[in-house]
Amino acid sequence: MKPFVKWAGGKRQILNRINVFIEDSIVEGSSFTYIEPFLGGGAVFFDRRPNKAIINDLNEDLINAYQVIKSEKYLDLIDTLEEHAFAYKFDPDDCFYEVRSWDREDGWPNNHTDVERAARMIFLNRTCYNGLYRVNSKGQFNTPIGRYKNPTICDKENIIEIHNFLSAKDNQIEIMNGSYEDAINKANDGDIIYIDPPYDYEDDDGFTKYQMKGFTFEDFIKLKETCDRAISRGAFVIVSNNATTKVINLFEQDPHYKIFYDISQFSTLRCINCNGEDRRTGKEAIFWGIPNSIPFPQANDMSKIIKLVMSDEVVLTDKQRACEVIGVTTIRQVAYYLSALSYLKYLTYNKKFTERANSIRGNEAEIKKDIYFQLMESEMFSIPYHTYKLDKKVNVDAIKTEIAKSNPKMAESTVNRRASTIRSWVEWMYSIDKENI
């Protein structure tokens, strides 16, 4: 099973990288919903084949095609595509431009059935220049015909396989045609959101325009704010985009230490061009937003935090080495401990030690003392700590109550994880206090 349309910015080239972050976002034994707000061709979605998913795109023609394939009309779609393929074989130009002109007719799209519109979308995608979906200011498809000798207009077997997957009784696949906010706002604790918005380009001063309304950097800022809220509800967020200066800065900057994004940059081919020799090497980034990291990092073992502070700075950007240094097995665990360093003001968002960290890094006793006094300044740690000193027991129920007060909509599992971290840190504080800090 593979995407039934070609799509600009498709993720087949970096699927393995994205899958690493998805796998590390899956909490063992949990039931999660996979959410993709900018679906496009769905390369990641079809590769993952999740049993529970919410898929969305603002493109009405594209989502109509997904809905038709899911429905019992998929066989009619195959028949219509085969008719287009037959006509195209005899006169490609006349067939292409006649079908392309439909959205210039009075009454569009109501003058065509949903099956006809779906077939048009797939036919044009398969025969237009480089499969590039592009519209003019009136919302009319305006990509010219491509020069293909024998394009695959109807991939019957693939459409049938996609239909069987989308319509399977054991699967819960919700298809939406709305804003990305509507899709992301459905995310709850433990859900995984993969976001592939229009790409920013350093030298082109803007985002690629696939929709009539376009997508600006101001839209990207609002997107990140929506992602931040989803993370605060316990969802994992994975965003891919070009590694431009302003996009990197957007995800690095959080002066309030509330949301932590792990950032990975890498080189890739990034240019729509039918001639492979003309494709340029660009730099992409994956931003991984991790729930329960800040303000209460899910990094219970304080000794691991101290080991990271004592280690070489290169470990901060080499996750495999970091795994070895602190004795964990997954990238997600490393990310949690890096977020703990950020919470304790030891780590900048470009993965460098802060001046505070550098001033004490060579002295384990000073690191312990600094952490101890930082936590004592926070009521969330100091109050249960003083209770522990009196009762020799951490009052976990009281901690959960306080956490729930800060966000009444927080899932119980999120409350439990944050309470576990606070208890572990409070117990560590008591052990340090006994050393006469």
Mean pLDDT: 86
Which word captures the global form? elongated
Using the 3D structure, state the CATH architecture of the largest domain: 3-Layer(aba) Sandwich
What gyration radius follows from the Cα positions, in whole Å?
A: 26 Å
Structural class by secondary-structure content = alpha/beta
Assigned CATH class of the largest domain: Alpha Beta
Portion in beta strands: 5-15%
Low-confidence stretches: 208-212, 271-279
Strand runs, count: 9
What kind of sheet is the major sheet? 7 strands, mixed
**Biggest sheet, spatial arrangement of strands:** 3-2-1-4-7-9-8
- Please give the share of residues in helix: 40-55%
Return the domain count: 3
Oligomer: single chain
Would you list the SSEs in sequence order as H and E? HEHEHHHHHEHEEEHEHEEHHHHHHHH
How many helices in DSSP terms? 18
Q: Can you tell me the CATH superfamily of the largest domain?
A: Vaccinia Virus protein VP39
Distance between the termini: 61 Å
Can you tell me the CATH topology of the largest domain?
Rossmann fold
Description:
The protein is about 45% helix and about 10% strand. It is built from 18 helices and 9 strands. It has helices at about 15-25, 45-50, 60-70, 75-90, 90-100, 115-125, 155-165, 180-185, 215-230, 245-250, 300-310, 320-325, 330-345, 355-360, 365-375, 380-390, 395-405, 410-435; strands at about 35, 50-55, 170-175, 190-195, 200, 205, 235-240, 260-270, 280-290. The chain has a 7-stranded mixed β-sheet, sandwiched between helices. It has a two-stranded antiparallel sheet with strand order 5-6. A hairpin with a 4-residue loop joins strand 5 and strand 6. It is elongated, with a radius of gyration of 26 Å.
